[in-house]
Amino acid sequence: MTTFAAQTWYLGLRAWRRFYRVPANPLSVVLYPLIQLFVFSQLFKDIVQLPGFAASGNGGGSYLAYLAPGQIAFTVFFAVSWSGSSLLYDYRNGMLDKLRATPVGRYAILAGELVPLFLECMIMAGAILVLSLLLGARIETGIPGAIGILLLSGAFGVAWAGTSFVPALLTKNEQATGTLSILFFPVAFMSTAFVPVALMPDWLKLVNDWNPITFVIEAMRALMTVGFEWDVIGRAIVAIVILGLVLHSVTLWAFRRLTA
Amino acid sequence: MSVAAAPTASAPAATVEVEDLVKVYPGGTRAVDGISFSVGRGEFLGLLGPNGAGKTTTIKILATLLRPTSGRARVAGLDVTHDPAAVRRRIGFATQAVTIDQMATGRENLSLIGHLHGMSGHELRSRVEELLELMGLTDVARKLAGTYSGGMRRRLDLASALVHQPEVLFLDEPTEGLDPQSRLVLWEELVRVNQAGTTMVLTTHYMEEADRLCERLAIIDHGKIVVEGSPASLKRTIGAETVSLRLVPTARMALLEGATDLAAIRSKIAERLRDLDTVSAIEDTDEGIRLSVRSAGEVAPEILRRIDLDGVRVYGLTMDTPSLDDVFLHHTGHRIRAEEADQVIPMGW
């Protein structure tokens, strides 16, 4: 286990350096969430006026506080959608073979790739939180809650990464990886990222009883607008763990298949 | 014709032992078709053959990256199929393509591989500096590897396979795509590494590389070992070396009746060399005489000494040895063509 942790650390360090040393990467990771939050908060500003919205008791009337957690989930989707490609790059240029000829566990190679993703997700979530504070929103749970939101977004990104890694490993093609991971985006659209369940048609309500994204968003939203609602937060953690176990089992299977 | 050498029965000195190895890829390609060989401790073995002969597949099996379909391979006494993790701790592997992290510095590249082998602290730092020095990369150690020249990348790649001081180094086409100058530098490096005690297994389709680096060669074609032996012995098996003496100042002179008494000179020489047992045959050429000998370089001075006679003047001496190209042609019926192998990337769905 200590070997696994050490190998993940060193491979993660490598993957992180590879990410931040291309200036465009850190730049867009900070800029994108800011633009997204700003635009959407203007676009949907008046949605709080809808009777159903207020009735569901969300956000204390501030759409920004309601919106921010959903935007975080959205940026995580974007970060994940490009995360599988770097593994393909290593596969194609032989780096993967070189790593596999060292005493590195296969899963450490995958875990190393997740390190920059975890950090990216936290940075994007952080950017959104900072901008919402500047625009007047409040985080009810203060700094501990903000840290909780960052950790949830990072953990969710790591779990959700399977949706990019599996297409990458199966298609062995960067473009197909990108296009296939777009197919997962509707899961986010169908969540409560923009609109509370109360305003949704019945079939979407049903979807959201099972939508893991919704569980994660609701937990972050609770931390932002209500307080430490442990049952909501607990549901999100369970959703992330189950999602992670399922997606990463498939990822590991695909990885073994690639490197058999 | 196939002289696939019998595996030396569990010779304790063998660092690599391969027995009847077969690899059939999904789809039915029989890339490796029952090959056996062994490599002694500290030896430098070359697998020579054209692209697609099964060299890379073989070396990938030995480096634990591919599972054999059948047969056995042991590296440093450990079975590559049953104990891959232990094998990986004892080997270094330099892939066909240069595999360095371009977004990391030279030093970071080496440190990463060291860390993955469980090295750390002072031990790792001093080893990294030592290798940078050895490969002439100290000055650029802080620069991103993406900025390196082709030769520097290759040397960094080689260094990264050596960080943990492996017992065996596997090299898959190590100088592919290098310019002649950089190739020579790398060759010197490889010989030095071997001299320091590392067992080396190299694949190549460059005759010159096989000839200059390897103590022993296994020539592979269509997944089988066709013939095995030292470069010199392989060449000897297909024909003698020759020493040709030119006994007239110009070829034209030989045509001028009476200008030289070539026949008389020839017989004088034949007389003098008759009891030299390294000379197996003497034949006439237009300009002089050709001797079939066992080892041209060694015997040439002796020949010159013996024929240092009145009236015999040697205007030119040429030594010829059969090339590995001839050896390959002799055993396979075709020549190695150094065409670029297409890197086949299997498509998913």
Keywords:
heterodimer; A: 260 residues; mainly alpha; 14 helices; B: 349 residues; alpha/beta; 6-stranded mixed β-sheet; 12 helices; 24% strand; elongated
Any idea what the shape of chain A is? Answer: globular
Main sheet overview of chain B: 6 strands, mixed
Please report the number of helical segments of chain A: 14
User: SSE string of chain B, helix = H, strand = E?
Assistant: EEEHEEHEHHHEHEHEEHEHHEEHEH
Strands ordered across the widest β-sheet of chain B: 6-7-8-3-9-10
Total number of helical segments of chain B? 12
Q: Which spans of chain B have pLDDT < 50 for at least 5 consecutive residues? A: 1-11, 338-346
First CA to last CA of chain A: what distance? Answer: 23 Å
Parts with pLDDT < 50 across at least 5 consecutive residues of chain A: none
Number of strands of chain B: 14
Output the radius of gyration of chain A: 19 Å
- Please tell me the overall pLDDT of chain A: 88
Oligomer: heterodimer
In total, the number of strands of chain A is 0
Largest interface (CB < 8 Å): A-B, 29 and 33 residues
Summed up, what is this model?
The complex is a heterodimer of chains A (260) and B (349). Chain A is mostly helical and 260 residues long.
Please, could you describe this protein's structure?
The complex is a heterodimer of chains A (260) and B (349). Chain A has 260 residues and is mostly helical. Helix content of chain A is 78%, strand content 0%. Chain A has helices at residues 2-20, 24-43, 51-55, 63-81, 85-93, 95-100, 106-134, 142-160, 162-171, 174-182, 185-189, 202-210, 212-225, 230-258. Chain A starts with a helix and ends with a helix. The mean pLDDT of chain A is 88. Chain B is α/β, with parallel strands linked by helices and 349 residues long. Chain B contains 12 helices and 14 strands. Chain B has helices spanning 55-62, 84-90, 106-116, 121-134, 150-160, 180-195, 207-213, 231-237, 251-255, 262-273, 296-306, 324-332; strands spanning 14-24, 30-40, 44-48, 70-75, 78-79, 91-94, 168-172, 199-204, 216-221, 224-229, 241-246, 279-284, 288-293, 316-320. In chain B, helix 3 crosses helix 4 and helix 5 packs parallel to helix 6 (180-195). Chain B starts with 13 loop residues before the first strand and ends in a 17-residue tail after the last helix. In chain B, 41% of the residues are buried. Chains A and B meet through helix 1 and helix 6 of A and helix 2, strand 6 and helix 3 of B.
